Amino acid sequence: MHFDDKIPIYYQIKTHIYHEIIMGTLQPGEKLPSVRQLALDVTANVNTVQRALSEMIAAGIIDSKRGKGNFVTMDETKITDLKTQLITEQVARAYQQLHALNLSDEEILNSLKHYMTQRGNVE
Amino acid sequence: MHFDDKIPIYYQIKTHIYHEIIMGTLQPGEKLPSVRQLALDVTANVNTVQRALSEMIAAGIIDSKRGKGNFVTMDETKITDLKTQLITEQVARAYQQLHALNLSDEEILNSLKHYMTQRGNVE
DNA sequence: AATAGTGTAATAGGGAAATAGAACACTAGT
DNA sequence: ACTAGTGTTCTATTTCCCTATTACACTATT
Asked: Which of B91, B95, B110, B118 to mutate to test the interface with A (most CBs of A within 10 A)?
């Protein structure tokens, strides 16, 4: 797994698993790989994985069952809320960053559209 | 100054000053506050500020003159290039993050538009 | 009971970031 | 010459992140 050395690894693992849950790669109620297997998958330490999981457990997205495994919550409302929250965070942060670069709303939209067309042509 | 504890302070200082240059708060050729004053302004250590400045100096955006001060480059091309670079980085990162949440191009645009209208009504 | 596979916790050590403090190098004004 | 204000560099210390290792607690299977 590719890590941005500017951001703590445990945080990037958490984001990565959140994405898998939201994309449906991990379904509600589904069992996650064991912490030891996850550690191998992302080439990080068990403790680092555990720290990421702890935060997701505290957030109610993951249910931890000692001796059995970690499971994605069955509560689909929580997942929907999580998705909304992550999207809003991303959009808000991007908007504020670009606004801080003196771009108007229209310029921000145009930059994004331009990026999309560029990207579309390359693939 | 507000810091995100997930990202190194020196890096956030650098971004902050870059924004001031691009917005024109700091004009080409203008003298920056002294490193000691900057440290007070952002409530960080002189060494941390110096580290941020070192990277901007290396990038050719800041000219350092020992005994006199730090100055924004007179080369406006470099500033224009910097702006383009930062915009592209922000747009690309936001797009990729939202794309990773399974949003189509259209949905990404709509999320942004929605955020803008919401924001517009509040202010 | 024994074993293997889980989550959980504790310890010890290394490294990067940030701080505090001091010192050095240069410039300008007095 | 002196002094004050600059950038620059160095050392020491602290804190957080990450790793490695070990141990403990629980579950299911045999």
From this structure: B91
